[in-house]
Each structure stands twice: as structure tokens, then as C-alpha cells.
Write a sequence for this structure.
């Protein structure tokens, strides 16, 4: 073939290439223009709704969320929020949760949408939620962004303190239309906290090291809710840092010599026993290990949820047994 | 070996002013070059000035010991560097002034080849020689294919056309590389020590082939080589370099004199003239009698 | 003797385009939300002719909101990485060269992370910083990979591996010390993730990708010659310096684009050009478009696997490419040794 035809054939090839590669975004372009109209509304809602009214609330991360007046189907993306839903008695409205939601055990039976950090957007959408709950303690911002982009209403909590946690629970209850249950729950939790405060009045705080992970050694920073929980339980972390989850060297622990070592986990987790610690070099020379001052908290402490209060009580009793010896009757 | 019809054999040193100007393909006139390792230092190496001519149907051999400037001279001929003084002309143009594509249409340079990393067929390789004759993103035309076929047949390698390059023997590869150079349709063919990795049979075959190409297809060939006797046997002119200076140019008969060769190569050498007029270089033994150089 | 013709290239593109289309349909069909092929096709059809209202909102959301954007992203990322790999392999004269092995992907990731720290909400900052990171890394590896003034294969690979590990260490350092910031997580950057759509429009990414691939394509004939040796190519009239600049910059741009959008995904740039070479030959005039299509197909399929194998949990796509890629790579290595 002579050179005259080359240009034609080259352009033909280029057009085909471009056509095939451009097909998806072309389709997307149409879809996007159609979707943009419905962007802020809860488009994945189930068909028959009594009212399509929605109001704008501001969630704990400062986002504006359009929440329908009647929230019937909830998907929780965080174990602590699942627990909170159950504590509020709203579990019948929980349409789905994550693989990791196992407190209370009933939560395992709910349809799953994947892991909290990497859930399946399709599965979430497929459950047709009116509202999705997320927590900055475990969910990624990209997930929330992506869901918003799809027109799904996502309410994010951002717990840093116990007070914030309780206020958040009340606010959430209000959004779900069960303000009264929320109020009752929070009041009772606050009462229990107050009891602990009274019992601990006058006691000096215990100097503790909270071990998130023992190898590498990771502890907590002062602005986490765990730190706040410790303070309520009459403990103070020896680690001074600006990070939330600092890697700490064993050396500095030897330098600080905390009174207590605190580990947290559920029966499934591998927590070093006192006998293990006594066998480990450096660990066994810590005062706390020598004196057997190792406290164990339930995995609840990792979750900003009502169960956290149980954990606080439990820890307070371990750290300050004398303070609770005579107030056993009024504890619960 | 047939005698040429050109009067070169009896020409005085430096070229024949009586030859028609259109016959001269390559002119090197007082060309010199120098480079230094650092910018400010004294020139580490200097070449020249060199003067010689090459005509159509001629093979010129550039000889000399190591580090005498042979490769530098070849670079000047190829237009890879510009002479500091004098000039080099191929046809009527100076190669260093040419655009690389134009240069590649006139001059083909064959050096030590690099290893191929991906499999390539012989015809694909030879077809690459047509690159200078097209636009940047090009597709080979029928004419290109014809030229490539032609080049392969000139080196008697047509049957190798569909083989993979990596499966070729040393001699076959040498022919294919030559074919790619010929596909450029050059007027000047430059070869940098092409016989290095070949055995004696391969060396002779290559030089015979070059001779045949030059005679039948009217190329002009300049070969850089170490092979004194093969150069004498197959080439028309010799350019003898020594430490960057051009010692002498002329026919092999004129250049191969015992005292010149001994001084340049620093070896006990003897020259004998064979029947037919071509010189042969021999290693002299202690008794002064000649032994074959190879 | 059958020289390359535009018709042959168009033919290869048609075949691969068809394969990509099939991969797209498969990917659209599979997912945590069950949909039949009929639903997929009708949804696409209604969408294509502009009747979006006739599609149930769920289908619309899943197909146009979730799966198609993901597939589109996969196409961009796969095509970019494969073409970048093909370019590096020719210029560096090394069949093992690819953005991941040479540390260029990691450099791009570091650039993107730094831009997230320094200028988190500036549009396009991530893409530009990723491009800068990629370009700086390839420049460093190129100069480190020389031995006696010449590019040496083994030294080059070593330089790449060392750069990659050094840059990953820097990334981990930043992630650990700056734990308060939202830097998207190590798993994302070092293993790749297509789950979340990028902040910039996918159409823009497509345009940039096609432009960069086109730029490399203009040097396709030159790359064929450079494959036989840089000096030889120069003697044939190739402007090797210009080709190097165009290809290195374009390949860095492609790598930066892909990494800024989906993190560092390995093996695609390495294996796709090899497989395409085995199928269609080493001629870059067909290899470049073939690699683009091949890379797109590879990532679309890998991502489909990543989100269906243990649904609804999603695996990182880089894990999939590594799991499939490593055995394929070993197989290819053994074939060459034979």
C-alpha cells in the first residue's frame, strides 16, 4: 500500500482506540449529570416512605448531613456504634453492620458489609440505608466521602472524651427519634461515673502505662478517649506525647516506672499473662511486674460506647480496691 | 584478486590529482581533533592533521597500534565530531554539519554491537536501516522492504531472513549487521574493527565480501583494523596512524616499508613483496630470516 | 517479511479492545450487590440513550455510581502503568524495568503524601507532586545505575530496589510520626486501592493519560531502534537525547497519575509488556497500544477479584496483582533462561 493511505489508517486506529477508552467516562458523564440533581438527597432510600422530609444536621466532624425524619434502616460501620445502637434499644432498625461487630453477640447475625476500614460500598448501598453511622476512631474519611458522593447520608461521630461520648450518644438518639431512651441511657451512665468519682475522691491517681500493643510497644496519647477513661478510673498515663498512638521505647518505661501496667482485650485476644511478663527481659525488672501490678481491662476500652463505662468501673476497682471495698452496695 | 582499473597503485603519496573529482567520495584535508579530560587541562589526546582521499570502489584501511587515534579518526569521518582544523567532506557535504538523519542516509557506521534484549527477527533488524528515510513515526513502505531484501542479498544472507537474531552464528550476525548498514544506501561505509571476534576464516570471508561489495556495488569503505596483512591484501589505500599523527598514507606498497612499520608498531617486522605486487608483513626472527606474521 | 502496518495495529487494538469490553462486562456483573447480566445490560443501555429515570435507583447507583467509576479508574491506572513499564524497558535496556521495581511508584507515593501534608486541599496538588516524585526517582535511579558511564543492568536494578525500600521507609516514618493527619494509610499507598474515587474528574485523568501515551507513541520507531543499542540508534539518525526526555517525562507523568489515584500497584508495568511482546512482537508501534489495553484488562480483572474473592471484605488490588503476578513472572523468567 502506498503512503497516501497511511494517514487514513492511522487516524482510523486512533479513533478506535479513543472510542474504546472513552466509552466509560462518556457513560459516566451522562450518569453524573443525572445524579447531580439527586446528590444531597437520600437516593438509596427504600421506596414507600411516609414522608420524604429530611433535615440538615451537623455531625461531630462538622459535616452537614441530610437526615430523613423517619430513620428506619441504619447501617453501622463501627463496632462501637453498633453497640450503642443495641444499648439504645434500636437494634430492630439496624439493617447491617461490619464483620467486626460482635458486641453484643446478636450483632453477628446482622447482614455484613465488610470490614470497617474497607467496607463494600455496594453492600452498603444494597441494604438501602436511611442513615449510615461512622466513627473517626476506626473508619476512613475516604469511605465517608465516597458514600456522600453516592448520595447516602452518613453521620460521623468523633469521640475524644467521655463527656463527648455521652453527649454524642444523646445527640444520636435524638436524630433517631428516640431521645427519651437516649436520655435515660446517658443519665444512668453518668450516675455510675459519678459514683466512681465519689469513691475515688481524695485518692491520688495511679501512674499507669496503658499497653495498646506490646511488640512494638504502643501506648496512648493524652487526647484519646482511652486517656480520658483512665482518668475517670483514677489513673494517669505516664507517657507524655502529642501523638495519639505513640510508639514508646521500653527504656523510657523503665525510666518512668509506672505503678501499674494495663492491658486490654477480650478472651480471644492474646494478652501477655503476668507469668509471661515475669519471664521477659526488661519487663520482668519493672516495679509493676515485680509487684504483680498488672491490670486487665476488657476490649471495651477500645470502643467508645456505653460498655466503656463498665470497663472504667472495672479498672477503678482493680487500681483502687480499698476505695470500693465499702461502697460495694451502692456500685450498681 | 583482480587489479583495479584506477591508477591509484602508482599514485604518489597523498592522492591522485588527476582522478576525476566526481569519483572522490571522501575527502579529508588537514583534519585534526583534540580533546582533554578536563576542560582546562592540556589536551589529553590530539589527532592530526590527517589528509587522504577515498574514491568509489575503494577500500581504505586505517591502521595503527592501540591508542593511535584510529577510532577518533573514524568519528571524524562519521561526523560525530567536528574537526578542529581542516575539514572532512563526504560527497560535497561535511558530515558534522548534517542533520543526523541526512548523515545516516550517506554514511553507515558499523561498530561493536550491543546485546539484544528482546527477540528480533533478522528482517526486522535489517529494516531498521531504512529509518533515516522517513518521517518520525513511520511505517515501512514497499520500497523499504525492497531495499532491505536487496541489502540481505548483497551479503548473501537472504535465507536468514526469518531467523531470530539471537540464533545466528558469529559470522551470520556479522553479515546481518552489514546488511542493515547497506540498507541505509550509504555512499560511505565505515567499519570499526569488524574482524575482532572472528576466526581467521571469518576475517578473510568478511574482507572478501567487502571487496566484492565495493567492486560490484560501488561503495566506498573505510575500515579500522589491526590486520596488517589482510589490509594489504584487500584494501586500496592505507592510512597509518602513530600516536595521533598521520605517519603516511598511500597504497599498501608505498606504506609498508620496514623502517616505518618497525617504528610505528615497535616490533621486529619485515616486509616482503609477493608476486602480484602486494606486500606481506613478517615477523623477523633472531637470525634475520622472515617468518610468517600469523 | 511483513512490516508493521497501521492495519495490523488497528487489528490488535480491536482484539484487545474486545477483550477489555468483555472484562468490563464481567466486572460490571460481579460484586457484592447481586445483579443479573440482563439488568446490567439494560441499565447500560438506558444510561447510554439518556433515559436514566427508567433505571431503578439501586441499579443506577451500583452501576454508574460505584462499579463504572471503579472500572474507569482501573483502566486509567492499568494503561498508565503498563505503558510506563514498556517505555522504561526500552530506554533502560532491561526487561525487568517497571515503575514499581525501579522505585518510581514509591517515589510518586511519597510525593503525593508530602503534598497531602503540605497542601491538603489544593486541587491537582497530589497529581503534580506525584509526578515530581516519580521524575526525581527515575533521574536518581538512572544516575545511580551507571557503571563507568554506561547503564549497567544489574546495577540499575539494585539502584531501583534500594530506592524503593528507602522511599518506603520514609513513607512509613511520615505515617508513624504524623499519625494525627489523614494521610490515607500505608496499605493504600504501598498496596494500591481502587475503592474510593479520586477528587479530580476521571475524564481529566483519561485525557492526560491519552496525551502522555500519545507522546510516548511518537517515539515508537525510535524506541525500536534504541532496543538494538543506543549508539547504533544514534548512527541511524535517532535523536536519542530527545527520545529519552520525552519518554522519561511521559512515563513519570503516567506513573504519578496512576499512583496519586490508586496508590502503588506492582507487577503491571513489568508483566503486561512482556505478555504483549510474546503475543504481538517487540515492535513498539504495536506494543504501546497493546500494553495500554493489556494493562487496563489486567487491573480491571484484578480489581474484580479483589472485591469478590472474600466479599464483602475488599482486598487491596496490589495484593491481587502480586499474587497472580509473581508466579507469572517466575514462569517468564524460566522461559527466558531456556
Amino acid at each position: 500500500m502506498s503512503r497516501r493511505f497511511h494517514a487514513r489508517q492511522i487516524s482510523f486506529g486512533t479513533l478506535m482506540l479513543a472510542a474504546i477508552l472513552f466509552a466509560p467516562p462518556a457513560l459516566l458523564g451522562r450518569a453524573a449529570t443525572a445524579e447531580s440533581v439527586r446528590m444531597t438527597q437520600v437516593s438509596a432510600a427504600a421506596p414507600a416512605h411516609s414522608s420524604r422530609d429530611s433535615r440538615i444536621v451537623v455531625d461531630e466532624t462538622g459535616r452537614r448531613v441530610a437526615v430523613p425524619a423517619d430513620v428506619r434502616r441504619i447501617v453501622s460501620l463501627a463496632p462501637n456504634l453498633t453497640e450503642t445502637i443495641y444499648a439504645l434499644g434500636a437494634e430492630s432498625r439496624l439493617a447491617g453492620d461490619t464483620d467486626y461487630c460482635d458486641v453484643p453477640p446478636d450483632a453477628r447475625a446482622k447482614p455484613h458489609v465488610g470490614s470497617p476500614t474497607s467496607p463494600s460500598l455496594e453492600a452498603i448501598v444494597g441494604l438501602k440505608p436511611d442513615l449510615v453511622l461512622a466513627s473517626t476512631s476506626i473508619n476512613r474519611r475516604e469511605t465517608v466521602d465516597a458514600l456522600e458522593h453516592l448520595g447516602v447520608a452518613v453521620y460521623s461521630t468523633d469521640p475524644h472524651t467521655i463527656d463527648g461520648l455521652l453527649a454524642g450518644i444523646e445527640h444520636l438518639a435524638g436524630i433517631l427519634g428516640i431521645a427519651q431512651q437516649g436520655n435515660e441511657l446517658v443519665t444512668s451512665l453518668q450516675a455510675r461515673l459519678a459514683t466512681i468519682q465519689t469513691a475515688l475522691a481524695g485518692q491520688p491517681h495511679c501512674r499507669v502505662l496503658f499497653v495498646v500493643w506490646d511488640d512494638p510497644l504502643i501506648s496512648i496519647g493524652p487526647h484519646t478517649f482511652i486517656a480520658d477513661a483512665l482518668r475517670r478510673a483514677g489513673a494517669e498515663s505516664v507517657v507524655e506525647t502529642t501523638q495519639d498512638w505513640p510508639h514508646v521505647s521500653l527504656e523510657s518505661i523503665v525510666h518512668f516506672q509506672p505503678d501499674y501496667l494495663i492491658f486490654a482485650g477480650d478472651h480471644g485476644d492474646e494478652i501477655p499473662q503476668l507469668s509471661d511478663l515475669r519471664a521477659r527481659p526488661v519487663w520482668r525488672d519493672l516495679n509493676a511486674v515485680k509487684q504483680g501490678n498488672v491490670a486487665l481491662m476488657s476490649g471495651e476500652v477500645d470502643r467508645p460506647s456505653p460498655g466503656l463505662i463498665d470497663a472504667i468501673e472495672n479498672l477503678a476497682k482493680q487500681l483502687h480496691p480499698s476505695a470500693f471495698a465499702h461502697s460495694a452496695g451502692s456500685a450498681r | 584478486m583482480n587489479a583495479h582499473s584506477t591508477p591509484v597503485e602508482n599514485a604518489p603519496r597523498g592522492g591522485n590529482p588527476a582522478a576525476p573529482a566526481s569519483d572522490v567520495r571522501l575527502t579529508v584535508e588537514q583534519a585534526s581533533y583534540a580533546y582533554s579530560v578536563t576542560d582546562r587541562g592540556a589536551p589529553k589526546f590530539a589527532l592530526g592533521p590527517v589528509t587522504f582521499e577515498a574514491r568509489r570502489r575503494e577500500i581504505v584501511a586505517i591502521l595503527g597500534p592501540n591508542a593511535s587515534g584510529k577510532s577518533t579518526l573514524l568519528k571524524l569521518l562519521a561526523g560525530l565530531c567536528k574537526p578542529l582544523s581542516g575539514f572532512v567532506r563526504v560527497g560535497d557535504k561535511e558530515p558534522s554539519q548534517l542533520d543526523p538523519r541526512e548523515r545516516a542516509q550517506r554514511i553507515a557506521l558499523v561498530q561493536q554491537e550491543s546485546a539484544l534484549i528482546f527477540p528480533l527477527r533478522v528482517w526486522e533488524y535489517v529494516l531498521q536501516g531504512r529509518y533515516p528515510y522517513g518521517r518520525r513515526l513511520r511505517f515501512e513502505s514497499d520500497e523499504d522492504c525492497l531495499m532491505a531484501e536487496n541489502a540481505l542479498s548483497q551479503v548473501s544472507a537472504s535465507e536468514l531472513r526469518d531467523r531470530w537474531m539471537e540464533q545466528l552464528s558469529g559470522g551470520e550476525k556479522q553479515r546481518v549487521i552489514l546488511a542493515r548498514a547497506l540498507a541505509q544506501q550509504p555512499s560511505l561505509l565505515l567499519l570499526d574493527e569488524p574482524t575482532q571476534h572472528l576466526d581467521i576464516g571469518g576475517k578473510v570471508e568478511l574482507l572478501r565480501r567487502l571487496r566484492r561489495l565495493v567492486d560490484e556495488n560501488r561503495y566506498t569503505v573505510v575500515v579500522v583494523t589491526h590486520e596488517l596483512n589482510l589490509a594489504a591484501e584487500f584494501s586500496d589505500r592505507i592510512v597509518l596512524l602513530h600516536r595521533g599523527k598521520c605517519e603516511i598514507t598511500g597504497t599498501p606498497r608505498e606504506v609498508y616499508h620496514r623502517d616505518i612499520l618497525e617504528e610505528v608498531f615497535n616490533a621486529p617486522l619485515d616486509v616482503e613483496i609477493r608476486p602480484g605486487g602486494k606486500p606481506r608483513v613478517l615477523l623477523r626472527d633472531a637470525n634475520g630470516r622472515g617468518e610468517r606474521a600469523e | 517479511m511483513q512490516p508493521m502496518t497501521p492495519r495490523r495495529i488497528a487489528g490488535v487494538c480491536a482484539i484487545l479492545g474486545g477483550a477489555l469490553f468483555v472484562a468490563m462486562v464481567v466486572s460490571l456483573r460481579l460484586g457484592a450487590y447481586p445483579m443479573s447480566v440482563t439488568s446490567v445490560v439494560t441499565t447500560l443501555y438506558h444510561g447510554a440513550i439518556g433515559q436514566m429515570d427508567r433505571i431503578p435507583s439501586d441499579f443506577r447507583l451500583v452501576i454508574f455510581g460505584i462499579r463504572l467509576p471503579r472500572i474507569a479508574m482501573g483502566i486509567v491506572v492499568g494503561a498508565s502503568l503498563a505503558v510506563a513499564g514498556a517505555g522504561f524497558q526500552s530506554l533502560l535496556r532491561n526487561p525487568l524495568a517497571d515503575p514499581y521495581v525501579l522505585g518510581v511508584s514509591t517515589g510518586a507515593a511519597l510525593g503525593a503524601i508530602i503534598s497531602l501534608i503540605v497542601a491538603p486541599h489544593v486541587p491537582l496538588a497530589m497529581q503534580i507532586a506525584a509526578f515530581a516524585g516519580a521524575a526525581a526517582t527515575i533521574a536518581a535511579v538512572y544516575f545511580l545505575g551507571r557503571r563507568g558511564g554506561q547503564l549497567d543492568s544489574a546495577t540499575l536494578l539494585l539502584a531501583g530496589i534500594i530506592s524503593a525500600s528507602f522511599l518506603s521507609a520514609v513513607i512509613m516514618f511520615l505515617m508513624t510520626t504524623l499519625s494525627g493527619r489523614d494521610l490515607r494509610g500505608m496499605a493504600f499507598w504501598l498496596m494500591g486501592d481502587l475503592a474510593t474515587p479520586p477528587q479530580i474528574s476521571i475524564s481529566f485523568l483519561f485525557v492526560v493519560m491519552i496525551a502522555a501515551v500519545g507522546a510516548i507513541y511518537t517515539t515508537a520507531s525510535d524506541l525500536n531502534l534504541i532496543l538494538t543499542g543506543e549508539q547504533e540508534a544514534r548512527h541511524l539518525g535517532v535523536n536519542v537525547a530527545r527520545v529519552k526526555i520525552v519518554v522519561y517525562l511521559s512515563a513519570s507523568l503516567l506513573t504519578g497519575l496512576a499512583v496519586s489515584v490508586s496508590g502503588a500497584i506492582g507487577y503491571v508495568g513489568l508483566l503486561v509488556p512482556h505478555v504483549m511482546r510474546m503475543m504481538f512482537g517487540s515492535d513498539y508501534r504495536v506494543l504501546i497500544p497493546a500494553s495500554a489495553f493489556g494493562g487496563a484488562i489486567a487491573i480491571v480483572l484484578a480489581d474484580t477479584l479483589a472485591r469478590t474473592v472474600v466479599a464483602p471484605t475488599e482486598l487491596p488490588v496490589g495484593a491481587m496483582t502480586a499474587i497472580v503476578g509473581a508466579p507469572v513472572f517466575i514462569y517468564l523468567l524460566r522461559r527466558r533462561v531456556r
